[in-house]
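Is aspartic acid placement plausible here? Inputs below.
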Amino acid sequence: MAILVQKFGGTSVANAQKIRRAAERALKAHKEGSQVVVVASARGKQTDELIADALEVNPNPPKREMDMLLSTGEQQTVSLFAMALASMGQKAISFTGQQIELVTDSFHTKARIQSIGADRIRQKLDQGFICVVAGFQGVDEEGNITTLGRGGSDTSAVALAAALGANYCDIYTDVDGIYTADPRKYPKAIKMDQVSYDEILELASLGAGVMHGRSIEFGKKYNVRIHVRSSMNEHTGTIITREVPQMEGILVSGATCQKDLAKIGLINLDNKPGHAARVFAHLAAHKVSVNDIIQTELNEAKANLSFTVAQADLDAAKSAIEEIRKQVGCEQVKISADIAEVSVVGVGMRSHCGVAERMFKALADKNINIDAITTSEIRISCLVKVKDMDTALVAVCDAFELDKPADKRKTV
Ligand code: ADP
Ligand code: ASP
Ligand code: MG
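Reply from A.M.:
I modeled the complex. Tokens:
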């Protein structure tokens, strides 16, 4: 029997009516012959509200306690969801992360999944139940509740689909699928019928909040067929897939931006083998995730090294750098806190030139200064001032005609 995982995001379960509607969708799939596992997020903006509650009692709450608190949002949804199914005459059972043995590391508020038991789910599916699992949460080896980072229910769903060998993982959300850019920031964006794992992975890590980045890593590794679609209608959304040859013909598939970044520059560092490794090992030990890294040699003796971090990690990064700077002979540390990043992504970039030039020209035409540029095989990112970010995104989207279907865009 086919197994289907259906994930419902916060807006799709925001109130009783929406929960019932989502439950009807799960029931329909069950009646059509699938074994159905639902993964649900906290209702509406509840996670934000719980964070605000925590900050009211303690501006710097212990992370373990944050996870205890935040996990309650999802627990409420799944019990309500199972009750809705019961009212429709359907056998249903809800589970927390702990109950399905979703084991993570102990890195509270950003934990990573290590294993999923899932036996209990299989048993209940075989008995005809719809299983409703709390997304976003797990448990560490010591039995502490953990959470997977904001937006982490996507990852719970895809990881569960992989663990169960599910045929499909449907991600129900408040947009019709994955668009060429966030439709809230670029209203002319159009929906993509399909996108490769690599492209959406880049887009997600560069700010496109539509999918949690880790979920795509699981999808790619375990070949889970992910369908991102609207919970408000029956339309086909976006299929996340391995690359197909026609994707190569598309120069840029999507664009995205992110703020809340800070750039840290180590000026006049001793230019010696092993220094960069020491700096980044030290940052990693402080649990700082580093984004773009740029190193420039000034002369034989000295170099500059800069990188970006999320603003939330800035304090940790600053103390890590303070501890190590003398050891690497760094003369000055420069911090810019009002940094944003605008990126374009597309597997077709591998085989086309001229993408960088078109992007830089679009920004220049709007008189936007580029602070730094980083690239990978399938993306180009420019750091700009926060005040320029929205204009920069629109300019770049227009330059790559992201308001038109792929086959109607100019290629070079
Ligand atoms: P959910 O609660 O269902 O997980 P999210 O708010 O996490 O929903 O993700 C959906 C939102 O992602 C959309 O409302 C949209 O504003 C935003 N988004 C950002 N980038 C994109 C994109 N490229 N395509 C579609 N939506 C995007
Ligand atoms: N409720 C969590 C959040 O708001 C997880 C999720 O929605 O995916 O981040
Ligand atoms: Mg989400």
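Short version: The pocket of magnesium ion (ligand 3) is lined by residues 9, 151, 154 (CB under 6 Å).
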